[in-house]
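Whiteboard transcription, Tuesday session. T.W. wrote the structure tokens on the left side:
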């Protein structure tokens, strides 16, 4: 386990990911639970290499909340049976587009 700021109340790594979006999803889940979280992308290297990189994306949280964050990430998350998210769509989103014409959908007649 890698840690940042060990012993000084700094940040601690609670998860690894292969892609940034995976780390961002984990961080979002932690933020929704009230835990400050950041994604550290360590994929940039000064020397090009053909060797595959293993985990280069880290999700970090304040050290004092690390155990709680690991428990949250270990809990499975179910998906809605109908494939739709719950709640209303966010305000300000563009109207749905007609798949054929590419323009706004027309009301059903």
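and on the right, the sequence the group agreed on:
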């Amino acid at each position: 386990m890698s840690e940042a700021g060990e012993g000084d109340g700094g940040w601690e790594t609670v998860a690894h990911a292969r892609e940034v979006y995976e780390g961002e999803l984990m961080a979002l889940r932690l933020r929704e639970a009230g835990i400050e979280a950041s994604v550290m992308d360590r994929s940039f290297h000064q020397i090009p290499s053909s060797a595959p990189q293993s985990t280069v994306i880290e999700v970090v949280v304040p050290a004092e909340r690390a155990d709680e964050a690991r428990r949250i990430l270990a809990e499975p998350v179910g998906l809605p049976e109908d494939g739709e998210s719950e709640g209303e769509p966010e305000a300000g989103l563009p109207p749905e587009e007609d798949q054929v014409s590419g323009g706004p959908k027309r009301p059903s007649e």
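Someone added at the bottom: The two ends are 60 Å apart (CA to CA).
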